[in-house]
Amino acid sequence: MFALAGMIFVTSFNTAKGTNLRTDDSLLKLSDLIEQRSQGNAELDRSTSALRKDVDALARRDDGSTEAEDEKLRALEVAAGTEKLSGRAVSVTLNDAPPNAQASPGFPEPQANDLVIHQQDLQAVVNALWQGGARGIQVMDQRLISTSAVRCVGNTLILQGRVYSPPYRVTAVGDPDRLREALTASPAIQNYQLYVKAYGLGWKVDEREAVTLPGYSGTVDLHYAKPVQ
């Protein structure tokens, strides 16, 4: 018994190397790592944006293009979402249900998944706004482009390398009446509205007279597809 106890003490000493084995203070939690990477990606986005502006300025100065070609390029940049876009807009805010949410009369008691925003909810809003003729869409503080993917992991949104928590705001520049009609007509959003009524999920639509969406400033390289033209 003494020999066994001695072996355990020696093993513990060699493993610990002077640290406390019963604490996780030295371990970086996954949530902390995600937040750290998100902040790093945000900083890289800002750096990339600044460099892209310098490159674009040099290209415009030295490319020798005609005025018509420059005008065509500007139109393509607006369509691609890499330039700022201003105009009337509709803003949609989605939020998780309150922590103490209870089912409204006539509805079953909620499960955990009934009380949080899911990826399909955000996708439904974005798709409806495009369907309603949106000229540009911003989710949280990021402009969407053709390769943007709205994805959720757990109860957090991962968008273009950055992580966000609810409430989620989606802003679309376009005709407010058409945008509202598209939101109302969407079957997926109609289903979401049932959960708003039953369990108190957050849903708010605001019309805004003057909004400026930032241009997308991240990478535009394609990894899994090739441009047709």
From TrEMBL:
Coiled coil: none annotated. Pfam families: DUF881. One of its GO terms (cellular component) is plasma membrane. InterPro entries: DUF881 (IPR010273). Belongs to the UPF0749 family. This is DUF881 domain-containing protein.
